[in-house]
Amino acid sequence: MTFSPNYISQFDPPLPPWETLPTMYDLPSDNPEEPGLPDDFHFLQPLLLYLTFQPTNWNPELVYSAADLNLYYTIEHPLWYKRPDWFGVVGVQKLYKGQDLRLSYVTWQEPANPFVIVELLSPGTEDEDLGIKKSQEDKPPSKWEVYEQILRIPYYIVFSRYTNELQAFHLVGGHYEPMNLTQGRILMPELGLSLGLWQGEFRDINRLWLRWFTLEGEIIPAPTEEAVAASERAMIAEQEAREAKQEARDAKQETEQAKRKAEQLAERLRQLGVNPDEIA
């Protein structure tokens, strides 16, 4: 009996979902109706989070973060997405499949969902970001609903630069519960990190910034800050070395002066008929 190719293909195993569902190459990575970033803060603040997101108990090669990147969240509606101001993921390579820079973050094509998301409040998005505005029927769900109910993001952080108010929510039993700050910081022991407010200068702008700390409260420096700190440490070490050399020279001079004075005193005693070696 002869089988046609089509008939034989019926016995082939089905392709896995990630082979048939749209990937980041198939889905749009921008929205012409939402061009650009709203302001400088929405560029600089995520950049600071990006530069300092360094979980202490994860392999750096399996840590990924992004700012203003499309986050596709449901295969039921593959064109629906949210665009967090910043999000961080652990257990994921920096490159898509270890090969390419990401165009978007497509959750059904990735090994893990984001672990923490930060939204920077704007007057036009505040109600959605805080879960006050509910989605309409047959319309995409709100950010709050996506992060809490669909992606189940463990930590959701909201910060307003207008009021300097920092709000944090932790997923507990399938729902977000407000978190209390510990010494002004949000503790995330799973990452070995904490997140808090810091008054300081970043990119030559001094203001209150949201940034990463260790669990103990030590600032995690950005690369430029680390370079400056290393330069300062080198300058201090060089100054200390110069001071140590000067102290050694001074001590040597004092020793030589004391020796000369002792010799002069011994000579004077001999002139007076006194043997200095016999003096107790």
TrEMBL record:
Region (Disordered), start-end ranges: 238-280
InterPro entries given in the database record: Uma2
Pfam family of the protein (one): Uma2
GO molecular function, one term: endonuclease activity
Keywords, alphabetical: Endonuclease, Hydrolase, Nuclease
Domain Putative restriction endonuclease: 25-198
Basic and acidic residues composition bias: residue spans: 239-270
Superkingdom, taxonomy of origin: Bacteria
Keyword Oxidoreductase set for record: no
Statement: the UniProt record of this protein carries the keyword Transferase: no
Protein name (record): Uma2 family endonuclease
Protein's organism: Amazonocrinis nigriterrae CENA67
